[in-house]
Amino acid sequence: MWLLLVSLHLITSFHRVSFNVVADLLTAEFSLTGAGLGNLAAAYTYMYVVMQIPGGVLVDRLGPRRIALLKGLAMAGGSICIGLAANAGLVFLGRLLIGFGGSVVLINIFKFQASWFRSAEFATMSGLAILVSGTGALLGATPLALSVQLVGWRSSFIFVGLATVLAALLCWFVVRNRPANNSPKPDRSAPPGESCENEQAFSLDIAVSVLSNRRLWIPFLINVGVYGGFIVFSGTWGVSYLVHVYGIAVEQASIFMIITFLGYMAASPAAGFFSDRLGSRKIPAVILVSCCALFWLFLAAWPGGILPLGLLYVLSILLGISAASTVLSFPMAREVSPPGYTGSVTAAVNLGVFLGLAILQPLFGFVLDLGWEGLVVDGARIYPVYAYRLGFLVCFLFSAIALTAALLHKEDRSRKGPPF
User: Fold this and answer.
1) Quick one: pLDDT band at residue 343, thresholds 50, 70, 90?
2) Could you tell me if residue 279 is left (phi over 0), alpha (psi between -120 and 50 degrees) or otherwise beta?
3) Which ranges in 279-341 belong to alpha helices (H)?
4) Whole-angstrom Cα distance, residue 212 to residue 348?
5) Could you tell me if 115 and 419 are in contact, meaning their C-beta atoms sit under 8 angstroms apart?
6) Residue boundaries of the structural domains of the chain
7) Which of 54, 194, 206, 341 is deepest in the core (most CB within 10 A)?
8) Contact call for residues 231 and 361 (beta carbons, < 8 A)
9) Which of 97-106, 200-209, 231-240, 327-336 has the highest mean pLDDT?
10) Which residues, at least 6 apart from 331, have a Cβ–Cβ distance to it below 8 Å?
């Protein structure tokens, strides 16, 4: 059951990075600017931002099984819409549908884990979820590039949409919200005779209570500062940067994206495991966010702006490892919040992930357009190295915010995170 739910997150990971491979194809076919491409790439994150709090409440109320079916079908519709799109507007609509569907997939997994696993396993299982679902990001790199060569980008997205329908249906028939001997928790059960209006008011009270918790700002800002930049490189602009600046083929450039996500996949369960064993979220978080800041500093400040490819391989792994800091943000939030509301609390922190994406992807494209010198090849804009360096500097500033937040986190060693 856990693997089926994670499979939907695998699909969201695919869509999160898929534009890296097809960026130049979309730019040429729909005559996009850098800002326009960044807006399309970020479109699904707009729905993530909008849906996090209400989506978290829905997960708490409807349960993982129903959410998996509804959200999976929405993602499938979005992927097929992209494959059939006749213009950029329909691509944007498809990305919105994918965003609506994928917005609470990870929260849904956390809700399921809260019912089926022990509290002390929370960070470890969250890391394992990232490890397994990271396969989707790998599929969105070289395998997608090969698929585009064989059948075209449109057929590739339609196929992914059909596979998503199958995953959603399997979740509906197989997944169960809680063990048979585990009755609904008292604080999540409406009193007998309670009306729908009272249930809605209760949910709004939860949202207000969660958002008023100032200690949630720490993990929220870590997610804003780390993950947006991670996807800017590994999911949207990294391949174009390597092709334009280093003159290598798309297939070779996509290998860097695979390396980045392998680092993320390996570090995520390791970060959760060691954090659980150390009894500390702050120490590993500071180390990981520092790695993120170091990556962007190298790309922005390296003399001449062109790093040796061997060093870039190492730094790509480092960026992937640093993104595992987002895994720690969820147990961080859990330990500074009252028990009982897995969906709502994790949704509030997860909002930072997608707010960072929604801001950085179009902002990075806007900065590239500022540095564009007018060069167009096969309908796609070619940006000079200094334009990319300006964008990398923006990403470094975001990572500096995340590092400051991690350093300010205060741990209560006498308190274990409450089970949900």
Assistant:
1) low
2) left
3) 282-301, 309-322, 325-335
4) 11
5) no
6) 2-177+204-408
7) 341
8) yes
9) 97-106
10) 122, 123, 126, 272, 275, 276, 281, 417
Neighbours of 194 (CB within 10 A): 11
What is the Cα 207 distance to its own chain's centre?
A: 22
For domain 2-177+204-408, say whether CATH 1.20.1250.20 is its number.
Answer: yes
CA angle 67, 68, 70 (to 5 degrees): 65
Asked whether 242 and 301 are in contact (CB, 8 A), the reply is: no
Cα maximum dimension of the chain? 70
Q: State if pTM tops 0.85.
A: no
Q: How many CB atoms lie within 10 A of CB 222?
A: 33
Tokens 């540095």 belong to 371
Mean pLDDT of the chain: 81
Is a pLDDT exceeding 90 seen at residue 117? Answer: no
Q: What's the rounded Cα separation, in Å, for the pair 124 and 274?
A: 8
Residues of the chain with pLDDT > 70, as a percent, come to 86
Q: Which pair of tokens denotes residue 287?
A: 């180390």
Assigned token pair, 405 = 């937040």
